[in-house]
Design a protein that fits this description.
The complex is a heterodimer of chains A (about 325) and B (about 525). Chain A is built from 17 helices and 4 strands. Chain A has about 325 residues and is mainly alpha-helical. In chain A, strands 1-2 form a two-stranded antiparallel sheet. In chain A, strands 3-4 form a two-stranded antiparallel ribbon. About 0% of the residues of chain B have low confidence. With about 525 residues, chain B is α/β, with parallel strands linked by helices. In chain B, the strands form 6 sheets. In chain B, strands 2-1-3-14-4 form a 5-stranded mixed beta sheet, sandwiched between helices. Chain B is globular, with a radius of gyration of 26 Å. In chain B, helix 11 packs across helix 20, helix 14 packs across helix 15 and helix 16 crosses helix 17. Chain B has 2 domains: about 160 residues, D-Maltodextrin-Binding Protein, domain 2, CATH 3.40.190.10; about 260 residues, 3-Layer(aba) Sandwich (D-Maltodextrin-Binding Protein, domain 2), CATH 3.40.190.10. Classes of the chains: A mainly alpha (about 325), B alpha/beta (about 525).
Chain lengths: ~325, ~525
């Protein structure tokens, strides 16, 4: 059976199209299986958040679906105990990270784009990209050493006469939020700048030439050509950043935090890890993780909606 | 001809079918083993090969990649643990495995493990679970003659401050005497910010020396009930002692944020007089100082006792005679008999000598009935411990270790400790009778996915947050105010309920072991 489309062409039926494209569908099967098995099947484990899961010898699925159903008990415990402190730490670290790490790669990319010396451009790009490949174990030790009482930063501030007593950065909770934000920015700035650089490389050179002829200065060309053109990329990365606002980090907090500032360093991920994995409270850890996923999903959808209204461009 | 070809084919087919059977019959049994301590080591050294030959069992070692506790927890959740698991006995992971019915009841196999029964003795009684059965065997069990914690002081500075004779004396320092030494060191080195460095206290406890000097045990037992240590009347004495050091600039202000690298860095510089912790923690910085400074620039162990102590034999910290690790056979093990045979050999005296002394005739020999290292093996170890351990395999696999001397010749259980260097000599001489057996306090906490376990962790979290804040408080009044705040927060987190729970577990355990509380006040 065929139908006629608006442009007058005959459109084949769904069945006929499926038969025509059978090889493409066959090629798709591994991908679909992969998504189902790797992405969706593990989601059955979310049911654990509503049960009192205890592993036994009967197999994972048997234990999961025969565990005692406890409803929202774990969520209620979380909200009644540590929710306030954990959310405060998570949001404070995230907003500070967003404040630094969102504009930093844009500024870096624009500045790199304006550099005349190709050698210098490549050097800065490589140097700023390198921290992305350093593991958090090493990065955390670098920060711990540099910011220790006898570390480089204290030595520098003392020799410049900016401070009279050494600052114990890892003994004061609020400092920790700033340290994490700066560390996150330092580590991710170079990587994110590449995405913006690739967007900038797609800008038509004629636009810059025309603006130069019209007498536009370098700053004006950045403001009126570069930034508006990469706006869709900025929007998409902003949506992703907002979606990940509750994923403020895990290894960095775990490696750089200490008990003296635990009430400032403990965030959703470290909390779920400490209770869920380290202490074997699987159901409670899953409940905390599920809460985070739900809030992140709502945040992504909201950011996407707002961006679509403001910019005419959105992720989906 | 056809018949002949058919016959040949039939014979070939029969041989083909039988070959794997023959091969299978000859192939040794393979046992998978997760060792949380194995790190990146491979099971291919002379000791490993000898162990496989002697037991006829091939070992598939599973090493932890990342955090072993996390790996054990994940294996339990997915029920994909190997045949044998070695886990941290002090952690609640052991109880989680037992409660998940993941471990084989070893009590049913004790008649097949004569060496285990002979070597472990009363330890088997003490490692029974609440149902009276043994589900694991301890590692590093028995009363360890190796000393533990003390104040490990720079020997060259000690000589400068108190003179050679006192520095070499075995007489303990009184607390006020030791504090005066810290002050004197600071006065003569005004730029120094941390005369005393201490180690990470761990979770739920305060640093050992300060707990010990104030007779604090892991829990406070009083009138038939067990409480968290914060209820002990002497708890604040220990905190005040530390707070005083902090306020007077004698305690490293970054004591809570030192990781091992930072701590070693500080100890390797010239600004530290003493380290409070285990004497072996200072070996790396001492090696660096001896190479770069002078022959006396080394950390050596000294005992410090309270001013009012009547005896120098005061125990200053706890150490469990039930060992550091638990080794168990899991229900995933298809050949429990083979695993039992392997364990019994490792636990035997012959197995222990293989693991901790090496191969007889190659690494050591009997000379006049006494175990004696062959050649320069101990000297080579002292010069380059990690490489010699890796190459020889001696003490590379520390399983079912009994902390004891050999009953026949009095030599130590590990070959390396047969000859002591200056650091060990000082520690063994000065820190004698330095610890009590904390076995009865281990694993009392509620484990697994229960509300009690959640509450317990909440209580510990509060303690962990407040302990450094109390020590670092700018005044005694603020220190006391923080204490009151902490106790109130711990109460809100459910401290009393948890104490009631743990009291039941504690006294049921003592009844099972047939013991009286060791530390009731």
């Amino acid at each position: 059976m065929t139908t006629v489309t608006s442009d007058g062409k005959k459109k084949k039926s769904l069945k006929a199209r499926l038969i025509d494209q059978k090889y493409l569908f066959l090629l798709m099967i591994p991908g679909v299986i992969w998504v189902l098995v790797i992405c969706y099947a593990p989601m059955t484990g979310l049911y654990m958040a509503f049960t009192n899961y205890r592993p036994s010898q009967n197999g994972y699925f048997y234990d999961l679906f025969n565990a005692k159903f406890v409803g929202l008990q774990w969520f209620e415990y979380f909200f009644s105990k540590d929710f306030g402190m954990i959310m405060r730490n998570t949001l404070a670290t995230s907003f500070l990270t967003l404040l630094f790490s969102f504009p930093a790669p844009i500024i870096l990319a624009v500045m790199l784009n304006e550099l005349r010396s190709v050698k210098m451009k490549k050097f800065i790009q490589t140097a700023s990209y390198l921290p992305y490949f350093i593991s958090w174990v090493i990065a955390a030790n670098i920060f711990l050493t540099f910011l220790s009482g006898g570390g480089l930063i204290n030595d520098l501030l003392m020799s410049l006469g900016l401070i009279k007593e050494r600052i114990l950065f890892f003994q004061h909770g609020p400092y920790f939020w700033w340290i994490i934000a700066i560390a996150n920015t330092w580590k991710g700035m170079g990587y994110n700048a590449i995405i913006y650089l690739s967007a900038i490389s797609g800008i038509d050179e004629q636009l810059y030439e025309a603006a130069s002829i019209d007498g536009a200065s370098r700053v004006k060309r950045i403001w009126h050509i570069t930034l508006p053109t990469i706006r869709p990329t900025i929007s998409i990365l902003l949506i992703l950043a907002i979606g990940g606002i509750l994923s403020t980090g895990f290894e960095q907090q775990l490696l750089m935090g200490n008990n003296a500032i635990l009430n400032y360093s403990d965030v959703l991920d470290t909390y779920a890890y400490r209770y869920g994995l380290a202490k074997g409270m699987y159901s409670y850890g899953t409940a905390v993780g599920l809460f985070k996923s739900i809030v992140s999903f709502i945040l992504v959808m909201s950011a996407n909606k707002i961006t679509a209204k403001l910019n005419d461009s959105a992720l989906f | 001809m056809k018949k002949l070809v058919g016959l040949m084919l039939a014979v070939m087919m029969a041989l083909t079918v039988m070959l794997p059977i023959t091969a299978m019959a000859e192939e040794p049994v393979t046992i998978s083993f997760f060792d949380k301590n194995s790190g990146v080591r491979t099971f291919d050294d002379p000791v490993a090969k000898a162990l496989e030959e002697r037991t006829g069992i091939k070992l598939a070692l599973e090493s932890p990649s990342g955090n072993p506790g996390e790996k054990l927890s994940l294996m339990l959740a997915g029920q994909n643990y190997p045949d044998i698991v070695l886990m941290d006995r002090g952690s609640d992971i052991v109880n989680q495995y037992i409660e998940a019915n993941a471990l084989v009841n070893l009590s049913d196999y004790l008649d097949q493990m004569p060496n285990v029964v002979a070597m472990y003795g009363d330890t088997l009684n003490k490692t029974r679970y609440t149902d009276g059965n043994n589900y694991y065997l301890s590692n590093w069990y028995g009363y360890d003659p190796d000393p533990v914690t003390g104040f490990i002081c720079r020997y060259d500075y000690m000589i400068e401050l108190v003179g050679q004779e006192r520095a070499d004396s075995a007489e303990p320092f009184r607390w006020s005497e030791f504090k005066a030494l810290l002050q004197k060191f600071k006065d003569t080195n005004p730029d120094v910010t941390s005369p005393l460095v201490i180690g990470d206290p761990g979770s739920g406890i305060i640093n050992g020396m300060f707990a010990g000097m104030n007779s604090l045990y892991p829990y406070y037992v009083h009138e038939g009930k067990l409480y968290f240590t914060v209820r002990d009347p002497q708890f604040m004495d220990a905190i005040h002692q530390m707070n005083e050091l902090y306020r007077e600039g004698l305690l490293d202000p970054e004591w809570t944020s030192n990781n091992q690298e930072l701590r070693n860095q500080k100890l390797s510089n010239n600004g530290v007089f003493a380290y409070g912790g285990s004497y072996w923690d200072t070996w790396t910085p001492s090696a660096s100082l001896l190479a770069s400074q002078n022959e006396n620039a080394e950390y050596l162990a000294y005992k410090v006792i309270p001013d009012d102590a009547t005896s120098a034999d005061l125990p200053l910290s706890g150490r469990s005679s039930l060992g550091w690790d638990a080794i168990a056979i899991t229900k995933n093990c298809k050949n429990v008999e083979a695993a039992v045979k392997f364990i019994d050999y490792c636990a035997s005296q012959e197995g222990q000598d293989l693991l901790l002394w090496g191969i007889e005739g190659q690494d050591w020999e009997f000379v006049n009935g006494v175990r004696t290292p062959i050649g320069d093996i101990v000297a080579r170890y002292q010069a380059d411990p990690s490489n010699v351990v890796d190459q020889t395999g001696i003490t590379k696999w520390t399983w079912f270790v009994k902390n004891d001397v050999h009953p026949d010749d009095g030599t130590t259980c590990r070959i390396w400790f047969n000859e002591k260097d200056r650091s060990a000599t000082f520690a063994y001489r000065n820190l004698t009778n330095g610890y009590y057996d904390s076995a009865e306090f281990a694993n009392l906490e509620p484990a697994g996915s229960t509300l009690e376990a959640l509450m317990y962790q909440g209580v510990i979290d509060v303690f962990d947050q407040y302990y450094p804040r109390m020590v670092n408080a700018p005044t005694v009044e603020q220190c006391d105010a923080l204490y009151n705040e902490m106790v109130s927060a711990m109460e809100n987190a459910g401290m009393s309920d948890i104490e009631a729970y743990m009291t039941d577990v504690y006294f049921a355990r003592l009844a099972l072991w047939g013991l009286e509380p060791v530390a009731s006040k």
